[in-house]
Write a structure and sequence with these properties.
Elements (H helix, E strand, L loop, with lengths): L1 H5 L1 H20 L1 E4 L2 E4 H77 L3 E10 L7 E4 L12 E4 L2 E10 L3 E6 L7 E5 L5 E5 L6 E4 L12 E4 L11 E10 L5 E7 L8 E7 L15 H8 L26
Antiparallel strand pairs: 1-2, 3-4, 3-14, 4-7, 5-6, 5-14, 6-7, 8-9, 8-11, 9-10, 10-13, 11-12, 12-13
């Protein structure tokens, strides 16, 4: 209050001048493109316009940011939904491809089964031994399906192994030909040499008991000889992968199996074999052990006596002209 009392005249003068300026601003008009406008309004507009523009800009920016944030949330939700749908479609596609592959395998298996003359049972592989020391498979067929011990197990590609044990009505165990305790009579298709296919602890196949003076070529096909009386004759076992000189005058023949033994899913078990005629009339069935004995040293057999009781002469069979 003291300030106003001391400067009363100056304050009154300032108020009067301000009133006169306002009166003049109301009365004075200026020409604009939009028409005559009072000076007061023009000053007010020019003074407040920057603040108004700033407020409008900030408000628009805030609305833009909010709209973008809301849109981003919708986009993220839509992205998550589309990603989930894509995963479902991908899983469905994977199932369809797996079903198609299984159908193709089963079609080939059943086609081979229809052409095969022996009686067979199709089985699904449900497990493996799970160890490196043994090579075993477990099938979903058992005693009720006609599965018995020592029955051959094959695929359209060749020999898998033989039934080692039957557990109940619907489970059986198969010993693969790659197991170290297995053995299959074998014949080299080109040279007709016979030996025994055996497995090893690391799962490799070898063809044993081929003498070192024989000739075996890599890539030669090996089939079952039928000498083990388990596997039918002529089933593919594999091909010769590598040949080297081994121990005891025998060749070391490494074999690539005809069947991918570590990727089996369906197999055929031969439950009943049809008797097959020998290759040539009058030729007895040759076993692998018989062929092996021919290569091993032994005691010469005594010659059978002739009907007249005299020892046979080396030239007895020759005929005079």
């Amino acid at each position: 209050m003291n300030f106003f009392k001391r400067h009363e005249n100056a304050v009154v003068l300032a108020v009067v001048l301000l009133a006169q300026l306002l009166a003049l601003a109301v009365q004075v008009k200026r020409q604009t493109p939009a028409g005559p406008v009072t000076l007061l309004r023009l000053v007010a507009v020019n003074t407040l316009a920057p603040f108004e523009r700033s407020a409008i800009y900030l408000g628009g920016g805030a609305r833009h940011v909010w709209n973008n944030y809301v849109d981003l949330l919708h986009v993220r939700q839509e992205n998550l939904r589309l990603k989930a749908e894509f995963e479902q479609v991908r899983l469905a596609r994977t199932r369809e491809l797996e079903d198609a592959r299984q159908a193709h395998r089963l079609q080939a298996l059943l086609g081979f089964k229809e052409k095969w003359i022996d009686q067979t049972v199709a089985a699904q592989v449900i497990g493996t031994s799970g160890t490196e020391s043994s090579r075993l498979l477990y099938l979903d067929k058992g005693g009720r399906d006609g599965i018995r011990v020592d029955q051959p197990v094959i695929t359209p590609d060749g020999v898998v192994g033989k039934v080692l044990a039957v557990f109940g009505d619907h489970i059986s165990q198969v010993l693969l030909i790659s197991d170290a305790t297995s053995g299959v009579g074998a014949t080299l298709v080109s040279s007709r040499l016979q030996g025994i296919i055996k497995g090893s602890p690391n799962g490799e196949l070898t063809l044993n008991y081929i003498m070192g003076d024989e000739t075996v070529h890599p890539g030669e096909i090996i089939v079952t000889s039928g000498g083990d009386r388990i596997f039918p004759k002529g089933l593919p076992l594999g091909t010769v992968a590598k040949v080297a000189m081994g121990r005891n005058l025998f060749l070391d023949v490494r074999v690539k199996p005809a069947v991918p033994l570590n990727r089996l899913e369906e197999v055929l078990v031969i439950t009943s074999q049809v008797a097959r005629e020998p290759e040539a009339a009058g030729q007895p069935h040759v076993r692998a052990s018989d062929v092996l004995s021919q290569h091993l040293p032994g005691v010469p057999q005594a010659a059978a006596p002739s009907p007249s009781g005299a020892a046979p002469n080396a030239n007895q069979g020759a005929q005079k002209p």
